[in-house]
Amino acid sequence: MRHLISHAGPLIMLSAGLFFSVGAVTSLDLGSFRRMGPGAFPLLVGGLLCLLALIGLVQNLRHPLPVDHADPVAVLGVTGGVVGFALLTPLLGVLPATFIAVLTTAAVIPGFRWPMRLALAAGVAVGVWLIFVLCLGIPFTAIKGI
């Protein structure tokens, strides 16, 4: 039973990756390599998530990790960051939603001081803007109303 519990994380990641990949293929336009459609990014992220989950499962099958007790605060922080990003992106835009999601997730890291949390959240938001909006030209609403 303990070995099955150690596979829960990679299996959840695999499920999420498959969910996003199948959703992108079945309901969004993928476009082409030169003009990516709105489904290209979720398909790419879902595929990478599946790949990472499979690597984790294989490593875990070869050398099972010891199972520690779950930290409910960390689980809530990460879940809150993901759910917050999903809910806030249409309301505020991708950059404020990214900032808030990273800040929420970083808040549960012990010993991580607030100035570093703010710097990390700002750096990730700027990185998202540089990579996805500026370089790739994905039509995200960077900041709603601007």
From TrEMBL:
Question: Which superkingdom is the protein from?
Answer: Bacteria
Instruction: Give start and end of each DUF1468 domain.
Output: 12-140
Transmembrane segments annotated in the record for this chain: 12-33, 39-58, 119-143
Presence of the UniProt keyword Transmembrane in the record: yes
Q: Which UniProt keywords apply?
A: Membrane, Transmembrane, Transmembrane helix
Establish whether keyword Membrane is in the entry. Answer: yes
Q: Report what the protein is called.
A: Tripartite tricarboxylate transporter TctB family protein
> Lineage in the entry?
Bacteria, Pseudomonadati, Pseudomonadota, Alphaproteobacteria, Rhodobacterales
